[in-house]
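#data-curation
PF: Archiving a pair of folding outputs for the training set. Convention for this channel: one message per protein, sequence first, structure tokens after, nothing in between. First:
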Amino acid sequence: MSQEKVGTFPYTRGIHPTMYQGRLWTMRQYAGFGDARQTNERFRYLLAQGQTGLSVAFDLPTQMGYDSDHPMAQGEVGKVGVAVATVDDMATLLDTLPLDRVSTSMTINATASTLLAFYVAVAARRGVAPTALRGTIQNDVLKEYIARGTYIYPPRASMRLITDIFAWSRTEAPNFNTISISGYHIREAGATAAQELAFTLADGIAYVDAAIAAGLEVDSFAPQLSFFFNAHNDFLEEVAKFRAARRLWASIMRDRFGAKNPKSWMLRFHTQTAGSTLTAAEPDNNVVRVALQALAAVMGGTQSLHTNGRDEALALPSAESARLALRTQQVIAYESGVAAYPDPFGGSYVVEELTDRLEASATSLIAEIDRIGGMVEAIERGFPQREIQDAAYATQVAIDRGTQVVVGVNRFAEGGSEKGRQGQRIDPAWEREQVARLRSFRAGRDAVAVSERLDRLSQGAAGKENLMPLILGAVENLATLGEIADTLRAVFGTYRENVVV
């Protein structure tokens, strides 16, 4: 059993000696729907309710690099997140929000460089330097190939964009986390806890390898790496998973990559409760699920947390559900007493054994990925995809047979109690208004200057220079998200997934 102190290598028990005694985790509720104005109103509402950080959900066209008036975007604008096609959209999204004081997380991957450029450009309009900005871009494209699907370019071109952000941010935006290496979507696709842990850290290894190959020194970018995990239903296993993740990453960074800075060894992570566990049947049961999952994240030492709304299996969460989800965190933080104790489960025979077991299972999977040739090669061969598919199938079989109980679904089911629930509804008029604003934006700019900047970006993409300054230059000259993505598509091509059977 580990005798290590909290806040010391390998950080099994937490990255800070006092953990939440000095500062609570960031309560960062994920939000985004409709257009920028509606989402800004939700942000301000949540901040007024006590939220301590922002987290932006973008719609599928924004994630896939399409402007809101593109034929591929029709019917999807504002549906699963906010539509942001221009720097003016970003300005509206962030209206009145104190960018030099609030931390903003953006769940964006294939178009992360453009959204970061929008954010930086809006801050500059307000006199806030990039060095003063705090937050995170997800920027984790590898998990998109594995589990989620919002990729654009082939993996190696995507890795170049990511490492360009690393290099640019270390001097221009040193307080911004340049990536949130995400196990969340891997787990949502059906992975086990051990697979979530292994595949996430293997993605992290691939990003570090790519950055070093691009000429970066490991300690120059590693402190800006962060992670994003799922908090699932098995309470003790989840607590152990977070502890094992810290221990594994600390050893990987120190022993595998030779990092010298202790901040490079520390695995800092955001957690979201498990959307895939929420049920449309008897949705009030989801309140209990979310509370237990959130408590596991806190007991496991998360740095920030999003709690899902009870009605998310039916629709985007209403303002009432979003408030209740935030209140869940606040009750844990201020009423439960658990924040007074760093690593309360440290020394528990059960949790220590589970931590060791998960570490061993994840280590074995990472070794298999190494034998294949690394995570990029493993993705191209379909290895993690097959592993997740097999795990997801086994889980569904267990649920169908009733050997894995889902309360209110396959046992203790009353049925029909979801009737009358009203989640957040998207008004079709919002898409029409967003398209009209976008076309007006294009009509009011200097088209020659936009064309010149996009040509310059194309030249840079065909060569080897860092693309972040070129993307920022295009944004400052009012290029749209879709125009920037199309410019890069023309150079890099697009990725087509190999079917895994």
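PF: Second:
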Amino acid sequence: MPGTYNITDFGAKGDGRHDDTPAFRRAVAEAAKVGGCVLLPPVVPGGGYVLTGTVRLEPGVSLIGALAGMPFIAWEGVPREMQRGAVILARPRKEDYEGEKKQPLFELLGGNTVRGLYILYDQQPWPSDKELEASTSPYRYDTFEQFRSRFVAEHAKPYGPTFYSRHAPSVTIEDITCGRYYDFCVFHLAGKVFIERCYLYGYKRAFAIKHGPDTIRFRGIHVVPNVERSISHEHSKLHAAITACDDNVAFDFGAVDGYSVEDVVVFLAHTGFKLGASEASPFFDPVENSRESFSWGKGPWGSIQNVKLDNVALGFHCVTGTILPNQLQNLMVHVSIPSDQKVQTGSGQVARQAAFFVEPGFAGATLTVHNLSISSFAPTNVLAGAQMVQRANGRAFLIDCPGYPDRVDYAERKQACFDIFGLVLSNIPSTHFLAVTPGTTPDVRVVGFTHNGVRQADGALIAK
């Protein structure tokens, strides 16, 4: 078709050995003349288009692998020698990620669609439990706790984002499978963005948006460690090391104005959603090597519905608030990842493990939640080191909002407000429902409350 450019016509081999980065750049440059599409034909079994440097998609240029549907049957655990389709083997050069500023795999300049790719960072360390226990393993530690706390910092390659944009208007990313990334998608400024049907698992953040002055929509996102093979017990220690990092976040929203998230599954992550950024919990841009915080009123607002957060340390990390509400509907949050960080509350030190952790900058903001289920259990055969809320001394709700005397945008900033319509708590004792820091006045109002199958009275949750 006119306006389409086959990547193989520009020298790409797709054999898993030849560096195809120059071919990608030549094809994009040609497509940019008309605003066309670069097509990636299926590779031979075991092959893949090797990328060692950044490919910048010029304005109006799209990159298309599979024309429809997912490019790869990842869940079945197809061995590398049998993989076919639109496979990209990401092998960034050391000079692109070992410095202070990281280079992305793809930089989007606007008006881009990326569809139907299987992206694998096949040189990123990904040891199984068996490999870790071998006497010749380069990843041996004296104790499991040392491994859990040090492995990622000492051995994971801090690659730049898979997708990055300084200014990303009118971008669509869909039907992408990606494994072993360090950060998957980081946008400095984004608007009119659609991200759909992505199956991911890696070391750090899946999606990080610093500024979103226009609509950003996510739908059909799957952040689960079955990208390369079925979820198994073979990598339980690696999962524990990944989830021990508090910057392992599925969705990291800075000043995002009107986000929409629907149909999401997150399994084995430290944090499901981080809302806002403060000096204590800043937003990190690895390409700019910058950290940024936002004042009250600049926090994100939007809607989240039909979300399952399974085996996390924090379901929602609420950092910076605004006058506009965050509306959440149909949520299941299962808390079991232990946290070494502590929060001083009125009842003593509490582990920073919770379905909702609310920081001071969220005082005066409102969370409206419909149909919320919070549970806890410790699947020891899936995640090494899992601890239930009671054992880890976590909470369903952990609130650190002492409040401020000033009003901002007509909002009283004296407390964080939760309005919950339909709350089910399972396998969490009443002593671990709620904890608050000194000076915090909790305001968690519940209508329709069931605990371990028994209906409870409506009203406010009380810290015990």
